[in-house]
TrEMBL record:
PROSITE patterns associated with the record: FBOX (PS50181)
Entry's Gene Ontology BP terms: SCF-dependent proteasomal ubiquitin-dependent protein catabolic process
InterPro entries: F-box_dom (IPR001810), FBXL15_LRR (IPR057207), Leu-rich_rpt_Cys-con_subtyp (IPR006553), LRR_dom_sf (IPR032675)
Organism: Anopheles maculatus
Domain of life (superkingdom): Eukaryota
SMART domains, sorted: FBOX, LRR_CC
Residue ranges annotated for the F-box domain, each copy included: 21-67
UniProt key word Repeat: yes
Descriptive protein name: F-box domain-containing protein
Keyword Repeat attached: yes
Length: 435
Protein backbone atom coordinates (compact mmCIF):
# COMPACT_ATOMS: atom_id res chain seq x y z
CA UNK A 1 0.00 0.00 0.00
CA UNK A 2 2.83 2.38 0.86
CA UNK A 3 4.52 1.74 -2.51
CA UNK A 4 1.18 2.33 -4.25
CA UNK A 5 0.78 5.79 -2.70
CA UNK A 6 4.42 6.68 -3.42
CA UNK A 7 3.97 5.69 -7.08
CA UNK A 8 0.74 7.70 -7.30
CA UNK A 9 2.48 10.81 -5.93
CA UNK A 10 5.33 10.36 -8.43
CA UNK A 11 2.90 10.02 -11.34
CA UNK A 12 1.04 13.10 -10.15
CA UNK A 13 4.30 15.10 -9.95
CA UNK A 14 5.46 13.79 -13.32
CA UNK A 15 2.21 14.85 -14.96
CA UNK A 16 2.80 18.44 -13.76
CA UNK A 17 6.18 18.75 -15.50
CA UNK A 18 5.87 20.57 -18.78
CA UNK A 19 7.82 18.80 -21.54
CA UNK A 20 10.86 20.64 -22.87
CA UNK A 21 9.48 20.92 -26.38
CA UNK A 22 6.25 22.51 -25.10
CA UNK A 23 8.23 25.12 -23.15
CA UNK A 24 10.33 25.91 -26.20
CA UNK A 25 7.23 26.29 -28.35
CA UNK A 26 5.52 28.70 -25.95
CA UNK A 27 8.55 30.84 -25.18
CA UNK A 28 11.52 31.21 -27.53
CA UNK A 29 14.95 30.59 -26.09
CA UNK A 30 15.91 34.27 -26.41
CA UNK A 31 12.93 35.36 -24.30
CA UNK A 32 13.62 32.77 -21.59
CA UNK A 33 17.28 33.75 -21.45
CA UNK A 34 16.29 37.40 -21.08
CA UNK A 35 13.91 36.54 -18.23
CA UNK A 36 16.47 34.38 -16.45
CA UNK A 37 19.11 37.11 -16.74
CA UNK A 38 17.31 39.08 -14.01
CA UNK A 39 17.55 36.28 -11.43
CA UNK A 40 20.10 35.88 -8.66
CA UNK A 41 22.31 32.83 -8.11
CA UNK A 42 19.84 31.00 -5.86
CA UNK A 43 16.90 31.50 -8.23
CA UNK A 44 18.93 30.38 -11.24
CA UNK A 45 19.91 27.18 -9.44
CA UNK A 46 16.27 26.48 -8.62
CA UNK A 47 15.19 27.11 -12.22
CA UNK A 48 17.87 24.68 -13.34
CA UNK A 49 15.97 21.90 -11.53
CA UNK A 50 12.72 22.35 -13.50
CA UNK A 51 13.78 20.36 -16.54
CA UNK A 52 16.75 19.49 -18.71
CA UNK A 53 15.91 22.36 -21.05
CA UNK A 54 15.64 24.88 -18.20
CA UNK A 55 18.87 23.53 -16.73
CA UNK A 56 20.62 24.30 -19.99
CA UNK A 57 19.14 27.81 -20.06
CA UNK A 58 19.83 28.54 -16.39
CA UNK A 59 23.49 27.55 -16.75
CA UNK A 60 24.00 29.56 -19.92
CA UNK A 61 26.96 31.90 -19.40
CA UNK A 62 24.94 34.95 -20.50
CA UNK A 63 22.89 34.67 -17.28
CA UNK A 64 25.96 34.80 -15.09
CA UNK A 65 27.32 38.25 -15.84
CA UNK A 66 26.94 39.33 -12.21
CA UNK A 67 27.55 36.84 -9.39
CA UNK A 68 27.38 37.62 -5.68
CA UNK A 69 28.18 34.58 -3.55
CA UNK A 70 28.37 36.49 -0.27
CA UNK A 71 24.68 36.02 0.54
CA UNK A 72 24.47 32.63 -1.15
CA UNK A 73 27.07 30.42 0.51
CA UNK A 74 30.09 31.58 2.47
CA UNK A 75 31.94 28.24 2.41
CA UNK A 76 32.32 28.04 -1.36
CA UNK A 77 35.21 25.78 -2.37
CA UNK A 78 37.76 26.57 -5.05
CA UNK A 79 36.44 24.07 -7.66
CA UNK A 80 33.07 25.87 -7.66
CA UNK A 81 34.76 29.10 -8.73
CA UNK A 82 36.74 27.24 -11.38
CA UNK A 83 33.54 25.69 -12.79
CA UNK A 84 31.81 29.07 -12.82
CA UNK A 85 34.79 30.63 -14.57
CA UNK A 86 34.81 28.03 -17.32
CA UNK A 87 31.03 28.20 -17.80
CA UNK A 88 30.78 31.99 -17.85
CA UNK A 89 33.93 32.81 -19.75
CA UNK A 90 33.79 36.23 -21.34
CA UNK A 91 30.25 36.93 -20.06
CA UNK A 92 31.29 37.41 -16.42
CA UNK A 93 31.74 41.06 -15.47
CA UNK A 94 31.00 41.21 -11.73
CA UNK A 95 32.05 38.67 -9.10
CA UNK A 96 31.78 39.05 -5.33
CA UNK A 97 33.52 36.42 -3.20
CA UNK A 98 33.63 38.36 0.06
CA UNK A 99 34.50 36.09 2.97
CA UNK A 100 34.96 32.92 0.85
CA UNK A 101 38.04 31.87 2.77
CA UNK A 102 38.37 28.49 1.07
CA UNK A 103 39.01 30.13 -2.30
CA UNK A 104 42.74 30.24 -3.07
CA UNK A 105 45.05 31.63 -5.70
CA UNK A 106 44.64 28.63 -8.04
CA UNK A 107 40.92 29.37 -8.43
CA UNK A 108 41.57 33.05 -9.16
CA UNK A 109 44.18 32.11 -11.75
CA UNK A 110 41.53 29.95 -13.48
CA UNK A 111 39.16 32.92 -13.33
CA UNK A 112 41.77 35.14 -14.94
CA UNK A 113 42.39 32.63 -17.73
CA UNK A 114 38.71 32.35 -18.73
CA UNK A 115 37.02 35.61 -17.73
CA UNK A 116 38.94 38.30 -19.57
CA UNK A 117 36.06 40.77 -19.41
CA UNK A 118 35.79 40.88 -15.63
CA UNK A 119 35.34 44.49 -14.48
CA UNK A 120 34.45 44.31 -10.78
CA UNK A 121 36.07 41.77 -8.43
CA UNK A 122 35.54 41.58 -4.67
CA UNK A 123 38.02 39.27 -2.91
CA UNK A 124 37.78 40.88 0.53
CA UNK A 125 38.53 38.51 3.43
CA UNK A 126 39.68 35.78 1.03
CA UNK A 127 42.76 35.18 3.12
CA UNK A 128 44.30 32.51 0.88
CA UNK A 129 44.67 34.90 -2.04
CA UNK A 130 48.31 35.79 -2.74
CA UNK A 131 50.30 37.99 -5.10
CA UNK A 132 50.43 35.13 -7.63
CA UNK A 133 46.67 35.37 -8.23
CA UNK A 134 46.70 39.15 -8.66
CA UNK A 135 49.62 38.94 -11.07
CA UNK A 136 47.62 36.51 -13.22
CA UNK A 137 44.63 38.86 -13.14
CA UNK A 138 46.79 41.76 -14.27
CA UNK A 139 48.07 39.77 -17.25
CA UNK A 140 44.65 38.66 -18.47
CA UNK A 141 42.02 41.10 -17.23
CA UNK A 142 42.85 44.50 -18.67
CA UNK A 143 39.22 45.65 -18.34
CA UNK A 144 39.28 45.44 -14.55
CA UNK A 145 37.95 48.70 -13.07
CA UNK A 146 37.34 47.82 -9.40
CA UNK A 147 39.05 45.36 -7.05
CA UNK A 148 38.54 44.85 -3.33
CA UNK A 149 41.41 43.15 -1.48
CA UNK A 150 40.46 44.18 2.05
CA UNK A 151 41.94 41.87 4.71
CA UNK A 152 43.80 39.75 2.15
CA UNK A 153 46.78 39.50 4.46
CA UNK A 154 49.15 37.89 1.91
CA UNK A 155 48.83 40.74 -0.58
CA UNK A 156 51.94 42.92 -0.86
CA UNK A 157 53.41 45.67 -3.02
CA UNK A 158 53.95 43.09 -5.79
CA UNK A 159 50.20 42.98 -6.38
CA UNK A 160 49.93 46.75 -6.68
CA UNK A 161 52.85 46.86 -9.10
CA UNK A 162 51.22 44.12 -11.20
CA UNK A 163 47.89 45.98 -11.30
CA UNK A 164 49.77 49.10 -12.28
CA UNK A 165 51.27 47.29 -15.28
CA UNK A 166 48.20 45.42 -16.50
CA UNK A 167 45.05 47.25 -15.39
CA UNK A 168 45.26 50.88 -16.53
CA UNK A 169 41.46 51.30 -16.33
CA UNK A 170 41.33 50.70 -12.58
CA UNK A 171 39.14 53.31 -10.85
CA UNK A 172 38.50 51.67 -7.44
CA UNK A 173 40.83 49.74 -5.17
CA UNK A 174 40.60 48.72 -1.53
CA UNK A 175 43.68 47.37 0.25
CA UNK A 176 42.50 48.02 3.80
CA UNK A 177 44.19 45.93 6.49
CA UNK A 178 46.74 44.57 4.01
CA UNK A 179 49.66 45.11 6.36
CA UNK A 180 52.34 44.32 3.78
CA UNK A 181 51.40 47.30 1.60
CA UNK A 182 53.91 50.17 1.73
CA UNK A 183 54.47 53.52 0.06
CA UNK A 184 56.40 51.75 -2.74
CA UNK A 185 53.37 49.77 -3.84
CA UNK A 186 51.00 52.74 -3.63
CA UNK A 187 53.36 54.93 -5.65
CA UNK A 188 53.69 52.26 -8.37
CA UNK A 189 49.91 51.87 -8.47
CA UNK A 190 49.35 55.62 -8.75
CA UNK A 191 51.84 55.96 -11.60
CA UNK A 192 50.20 53.24 -13.72
CA UNK A 193 46.54 53.65 -12.76
CA UNK A 194 45.93 57.38 -12.95
CA UNK A 195 42.14 56.95 -13.37
CA UNK A 196 41.68 55.96 -9.73
CA UNK A 197 38.68 57.66 -8.10
CA UNK A 198 38.29 55.55 -4.95
CA UNK A 199 41.21 54.43 -2.79
CA UNK A 200 41.04 52.84 0.65
CA UNK A 201 43.94 51.73 2.83
CA UNK A 202 42.40 51.54 6.31
CA UNK A 203 44.81 50.20 8.88
CA UNK A 204 47.83 50.13 6.55
CA UNK A 205 50.44 51.52 8.90
CA UNK A 206 53.10 51.73 6.18
CA UNK A 207 51.00 54.03 3.99
CA UNK A 208 52.63 57.38 4.72
CA UNK A 209 52.96 60.91 3.35
CA UNK A 210 54.95 59.74 0.33
CA UNK A 211 52.20 57.30 -0.64
CA UNK A 212 49.41 59.86 -0.27
CA UNK A 213 51.33 62.56 -2.12
CA UNK A 214 51.86 60.09 -4.99
CA UNK A 215 48.10 59.58 -5.19
CA UNK A 216 47.58 63.34 -5.23
CA UNK A 217 50.08 63.90 -8.04
CA UNK A 218 49.24 60.99 -10.35
CA UNK A 219 45.52 60.48 -9.57
CA UNK A 220 43.97 63.97 -9.43
CA UNK A 221 40.52 62.53 -10.12
CA UNK A 222 40.24 60.93 -6.66
CA UNK A 223 36.78 61.45 -5.18
CA UNK A 224 36.82 59.00 -2.24
CA UNK A 225 39.87 58.54 0.00
CA UNK A 226 39.96 56.43 3.16
CA UNK A 227 43.12 56.64 5.26
CA UNK A 228 41.63 55.49 8.57
CA UNK A 229 44.41 54.64 11.07
CA UNK A 230 47.24 55.50 8.67
CA UNK A 231 48.63 57.30 11.65
CA UNK A 232 51.95 58.49 10.21
CA UNK A 233 50.45 60.86 7.65
CA UNK A 234 50.72 64.59 8.32
CA UNK A 235 49.29 67.88 7.09
CA UNK A 236 51.74 67.85 4.17
CA UNK A 237 50.01 64.97 2.37
CA UNK A 238 46.43 66.02 3.14
CA UNK A 239 47.20 69.55 1.95
CA UNK A 240 48.55 68.08 -1.30
CA UNK A 241 45.41 65.96 -1.72
CA UNK A 242 43.27 69.04 -1.12
CA UNK A 243 45.25 71.04 -3.66
CA UNK A 244 45.41 68.47 -6.47
CA UNK A 245 42.14 66.52 -6.05
CA UNK A 246 39.54 69.23 -6.55
CA UNK A 247 36.71 66.70 -7.00
CA UNK A 248 37.25 65.12 -3.58
CA UNK A 249 33.87 64.25 -2.07
CA UNK A 250 34.58 61.79 0.75
CA UNK A 251 37.58 61.80 3.07
CA UNK A 252 38.28 59.64 6.10
CA UNK A 253 41.35 60.42 8.21
CA UNK A 254 40.06 59.06 11.51
CA UNK A 255 42.82 58.12 13.96
CA UNK A 256 45.38 60.12 11.96
CA UNK A 257 46.50 61.86 15.10
CA UNK A 258 49.29 63.99 13.60
CA UNK A 259 46.87 66.16 11.63
CA UNK A 260 46.11 69.75 12.64
CA UNK A 261 43.83 72.59 11.53
CA UNK A 262 46.17 73.13 8.58
CA UNK A 263 44.58 70.12 6.89
CA UNK A 264 41.05 71.39 7.47
CA UNK A 265 41.95 74.83 6.17
CA UNK A 266 43.45 73.32 3.00
CA UNK A 267 40.28 71.30 2.43
CA UNK A 268 38.14 74.38 2.96
CA UNK A 269 40.11 76.36 0.40
CA UNK A 270 40.12 73.72 -2.34
CA UNK A 271 37.33 71.16 -1.94
CA UNK A 272 33.99 72.91 -2.00
CA UNK A 273 32.15 69.72 -3.07
CA UNK A 274 33.23 67.72 -0.01
CA UNK A 275 30.18 65.92 1.40
CA UNK A 276 31.60 63.38 3.86
CA UNK A 277 34.34 64.04 6.41
CA UNK A 278 35.40 61.51 9.05
CA UNK A 279 38.01 62.78 11.51
CA UNK A 280 37.30 60.72 14.63
CA UNK A 281 40.22 60.75 17.04
CA UNK A 282 41.95 63.75 15.44
CA UNK A 283 42.38 65.47 18.78
CA UNK A 284 44.38 68.44 17.47
CA UNK A 285 41.53 69.87 15.42
CA UNK A 286 39.92 72.99 16.87
CA UNK A 287 37.01 75.33 16.15
CA UNK A 288 39.22 77.32 13.78
CA UNK A 289 39.52 74.47 11.27
CA UNK A 290 35.85 73.52 11.34
CA UNK A 291 34.71 77.13 11.05
CA UNK A 292 36.77 77.42 7.86
CA UNK A 293 35.12 74.25 6.53
CA UNK A 294 31.62 75.46 7.40
CA UNK A 295 32.16 78.70 5.49
CA UNK A 296 33.35 77.07 2.27
CA UNK A 297 32.02 73.49 2.12
CA UNK A 298 28.29 74.01 1.67
CA UNK A 299 27.56 70.44 0.60
CA UNK A 300 28.70 68.60 3.73
CA UNK A 301 26.22 65.85 4.56
CA UNK A 302 28.05 63.55 6.98
CA UNK A 303 30.61 64.51 9.61
CA UNK A 304 32.21 62.30 12.25
CA UNK A 305 33.93 64.49 14.86
CA UNK A 306 34.13 61.88 17.64
CA UNK A 307 36.91 62.62 20.15
CA UNK A 308 37.71 65.99 18.58
CA UNK A 309 37.86 67.09 22.17
CA UNK A 310 38.92 70.71 21.60
CA UNK A 311 35.86 71.84 19.68
CA UNK A 312 33.19 73.97 21.36
CA UNK A 313 29.75 75.35 20.59
CA UNK A 314 31.37 77.69 18.06
CA UNK A 315 31.77 74.75 15.65
CA UNK A 316 28.07 73.88 15.90
CA UNK A 317 27.04 77.49 15.39
CA UNK A 318 28.98 77.70 12.14
CA UNK A 319 27.87 74.29 10.89
CA UNK A 320 24.27 75.38 11.45
CA UNK A 321 24.83 78.51 9.38
CA UNK A 322 27.01 77.14 6.62
CA UNK A 323 26.01 73.50 6.02
CA UNK A 324 22.28 73.27 5.26
CA UNK A 325 22.57 69.70 3.89
CA UNK A 326 24.05 68.12 7.02
CA UNK A 327 22.34 64.76 7.63
CA UNK A 328 24.54 62.89 10.10
CA UNK A 329 26.69 64.47 12.78
CA UNK A 330 28.77 62.60 15.36
CA UNK A 331 29.92 64.59 18.39
CA UNK A 332 30.60 61.74 20.80
CA UNK A 333 33.27 62.47 23.41
CA UNK A 334 33.31 66.17 22.45
CA UNK A 335 33.19 67.11 26.09
CA UNK A 336 33.00 70.90 25.66
CA UNK A 337 29.70 70.83 23.76
CA UNK A 338 26.80 72.32 25.75
CA UNK A 339 23.06 72.85 25.42
CA UNK A 340 23.75 76.22 23.80
CA UNK A 341 25.62 74.60 20.93
CA UNK A 342 22.77 72.16 20.32
CA UNK A 343 20.29 75.06 20.46
CA UNK A 344 22.18 76.85 17.72
CA UNK A 345 22.48 73.67 15.67
CA UNK A 346 18.75 72.97 16.02
CA UNK A 347 17.95 76.51 14.92
CA UNK A 348 19.89 76.20 11.67
CA UNK A 349 18.55 75.17 8.30
CA UNK A 350 20.23 71.77 8.39
CA UNK A 351 18.45 70.62 11.55
CA UNK A 352 14.98 71.53 10.37
CA UNK A 353 15.34 70.09 6.87
CA UNK A 354 18.10 67.46 6.77
CA UNK A 355 19.51 66.28 10.11
CA UNK A 356 18.54 62.64 10.65
CA UNK A 357 21.25 61.22 12.94
CA UNK A 358 22.92 62.94 15.89
CA UNK A 359 25.40 61.11 18.13
CA UNK A 360 26.16 62.69 21.50
CA UNK A 361 27.68 59.82 23.50
CA UNK A 362 29.71 60.93 26.51
CA UNK A 363 28.96 64.63 26.19
CA UNK A 364 28.83 65.36 29.92
CA UNK A 365 27.58 68.97 29.73
CA UNK A 366 24.38 68.45 27.78
CA UNK A 367 21.13 68.33 29.76
CA UNK A 368 17.41 67.86 29.19
CA UNK A 369 17.44 71.27 27.50
CA UNK A 370 19.25 69.68 24.55
CA UNK A 371 16.32 67.36 23.86
CA UNK A 372 13.91 70.27 24.11
CA UNK A 373 15.86 72.06 21.40
CA UNK A 374 15.83 68.97 19.17
CA UNK A 375 12.02 68.73 19.13
CA UNK A 376 12.02 71.08 16.13
CA UNK A 377 14.21 68.68 14.10
CA UNK A 378 11.34 66.95 12.32
CA UNK A 379 13.55 64.60 10.28
CA UNK A 380 15.60 63.34 13.21
CA UNK A 381 15.50 59.53 13.10
CA UNK A 382 18.16 58.48 15.60
CA UNK A 383 19.97 60.03 18.55
CA UNK A 384 22.76 58.47 20.62
CA UNK A 385 22.96 59.48 24.28
CA UNK A 386 25.17 56.83 25.86
CA UNK A 387 26.45 57.93 29.25
CA UNK A 388 24.99 61.43 29.14
CA UNK A 389 24.44 61.68 32.87
CA UNK A 390 22.40 64.90 32.84
CA UNK A 391 19.71 63.58 30.49
CA UNK A 392 16.61 62.24 32.21
CA UNK A 393 14.09 59.62 31.18
CA UNK A 394 11.30 62.19 31.27
CA UNK A 395 13.11 64.33 28.69
CA UNK A 396 13.50 61.32 26.41
CA UNK A 397 9.78 60.56 26.76
CA UNK A 398 8.90 64.13 25.80
CA UNK A 399 11.15 63.93 22.74
CA UNK A 400 9.48 60.69 21.68
CA UNK A 401 6.05 62.25 22.12
CA UNK A 402 6.97 64.91 19.55
CA UNK A 403 9.01 62.59 17.29
CA UNK A 404 7.29 59.19 17.61
CA UNK A 405 9.49 57.49 15.00
CA UNK A 406 12.82 58.48 16.53
CA UNK A 407 15.19 55.79 17.86
CA UNK A 408 16.87 56.80 21.11
CA UNK A 409 19.92 54.78 22.13
CA UNK A 410 20.92 55.54 25.69
CA UNK A 411 22.17 54.06 28.91
CA UNK A 412 23.49 55.54 32.13
CA UNK A 413 26.54 54.09 33.83
CA UNK A 414 26.38 54.43 37.63
CA UNK A 415 28.23 57.42 39.00
CA UNK A 416 31.52 56.46 40.61
CA UNK A 417 31.19 56.98 44.36
CA UNK A 418 33.81 59.12 46.08
CA UNK A 419 36.57 57.38 48.02
CA UNK A 420 35.84 56.75 51.68
CA UNK A 421 37.87 58.31 54.43
CA UNK A 422 38.93 55.00 55.86
CA UNK A 423 39.79 52.06 53.63
CA UNK A 424 39.37 51.47 49.89
CA UNK A 425 36.46 52.73 47.81
CA UNK A 426 33.44 50.39 48.12
CA UNK A 427 32.62 48.13 45.22
CA UNK A 428 29.56 48.95 43.13
CA UNK A 429 27.67 47.49 40.22
CA UNK A 430 28.72 48.68 36.75
CA UNK A 431 25.68 47.29 35.01
CA UNK A 432 24.06 49.58 32.46
CA UNK A 433 20.37 50.37 32.32
CA UNK A 434 19.09 50.17 28.76
CA UNK A 435 16.29 52.58 27.94
Amino acid sequence: MRNFHRRRRWLSFKSCIIPDDEISRKLPKEILLRILSYLDVTSLCRCGQVSRYWNMLALDGSNWQKIDLFDFQRDIEGPVIENISQRCGGFLKYLRLRGCQSVGSHSIRTLANYCHNIEHLDLSECKKISDVAIQQLSRNCAKLTAINLESCSQISDSSLKALSDGCPNLTEINVSWCNLITENGVEALARGCNKIKKFSSKGCKQVNDRAVISLAIYCPGIEVLNLHSCDSITDASISKIAEKCCNLKQLCVSKCTELTDQSLTALAMNNQYLNTLEVAGCAQFTDSGFIALAKNCKYLERMDLEECSLITDATLQNLALGCPSLEKLTLSHCELITDEGIRQLAGGGCAAESLSVLELDNCPLITDATLEHLISCHNLQRIELYDCQLISRNAIRRLRNHLPNIKVHAYFAPVTPPPTINGPRPRYCRCCEIL
